Amino acid sequence: MLLRTEPIASAALLGTMASSSLDTSWCPSELATEVVGRSIRCYPRIDSTNEQALRLAEAGQAEGTVVVADTQTAGRGRRGRRWLDEPGQALLFSVLLRPTCEQSQVAILSLGAAAACAESLASEYSFPVDTKWPNDLLIAGHKVGGILLEQRGGAVVVGVGLNVNGRPESLQAQVGAALTTLEKHYGAPLPRKEVLVGILEKIDDIYQQFQGGGPAEVVGRYRRFEGVLGRSVCVHLGEERICGTATALTDSGALVVNTLEGEREITAGEVELVTDGE
Ligand code: BTN
Q1: Of all atoms in ligand 1, which is nearest to the CA of residue 83?
Q2: Would you list the domain boundaries of the chain?
Q3: Which of 13, 31, 103, 192 is the most buried (most CB within 10 A)?
Q4: CATH architecture designation of domain 2-223
């Protein structure tokens, strides 16, 4: 779950909350995929699956390696935020990739991961998942997951945090954002292994498409779930704030915002949805 403010829950506290129940027996050991999941490393507790995947990349680990944790003590969110989890309830994983594309196209991989999550959750469980550009996964306007892409050397790590089971109320007060879990919408806990396998298979499929010269097709798969198009938004770009109507997503994954001063193509930023009267 996303922590929008400064760290307020210590890693030590999170670590002791459920240390006796941490478990990796649910973690898959192999997948019927081309690249993603060639090697799967499961940890009961780790600082950050992204950090571990980056460390493995530096040590020469092959692409397709997946790092999974039952809980993180220093989970990272976008824009320097912390990512909190309820131990034993979330999906926290990272995929190590070594794409051959130009640097300008790398960010499409995070849209691809969001599309993979949305496609899998929609087709396997009929979850009405929307994305909020670029990397938020929402159900009924509440955040259920997020993606963090990081690079070191030639390696790209795509990290996914998904609030699968548990009650969103348990961390919502700390996080200060509208959160949800899949369980809340499904009405029962979901098997994390099954959810993870479904998503990894989709990521593998999308990665093949991307590597095969189809970044625009990957953006097309993402576009089907994009919930901000047609909405009034303000996009925060550091100190700058661009407000208008989100009208389109380009084939390179940029968000087009129609402002009073004209059209802007935005490649990175934080979208705030603006409701009428604001
Ligand atoms: C966001 O801010 O919305 C992105 C959150 C990404 C969190 C995931 S959890 C698994 C992976 N490891 C991390 O440290 N972060 C990502």
Answers
A1: 7
A2: 2-223, 232-273
A3: 192
A4: 2-Layer Sandwich (3.30)
Q: Which two tokens stand for residue 18?
A: 């459920």
Pocket of ligand 1 (CB under 6 A): 2, 48-50, 72, 75-78, 81, 83, 92-94, 135-136, 146-148, 159-161
Structure tokens that stand for 123 in this block = 């087709």
What topology does CATH give the domain 232-273? SH3 type barrels. (2.30.30)
- Distance (Å) from CA 109 to ligand 1 centroid: 15
Virtual torsion, Cα 170, 200, 63, 23, nearest 10 deg: 50
Rounded-to-integer distance, Cα 212 and Cα 33, Å: 16
pTM of the predicted model over 0.70? yes
- How far apart CA 224 and CA 129 sit, in angstroms, is 10
pLDDT (tens digit, 9 = 90+) per residue, 158-197? Answer: 999 999 999 888 777 667 778 999 999 999 999 999 999 9
In this prediction, residues 103-130 reach a mean pLDDT of: 97
Express each pLDDT in 23-42 by its tens digit: 999 999 989 999 999 999 99
Contacts of 187 (CB under 8 A, 6+ apart): none
Residue 83 backbone class (left: φ over 0; alpha: ψ -120 to 50; beta: rest): beta
Same fold, 2-223 and 232-273: no
- What are the φ and ψ backbone dihedral angles of 117, each rounded to 5 degrees? -65, -50
Confidence of residue 276 (pLDDT cuts 50, 70, 90): low
Q: Specify the residue with its C-alpha closest to ligand 1, atom 9.
A: 161
pLDDT band at 21 (very low <50, low <70, confident <90, very high): confident
Q: Which atom of ligand 1 is nearest to the CA of 145?
A: 3
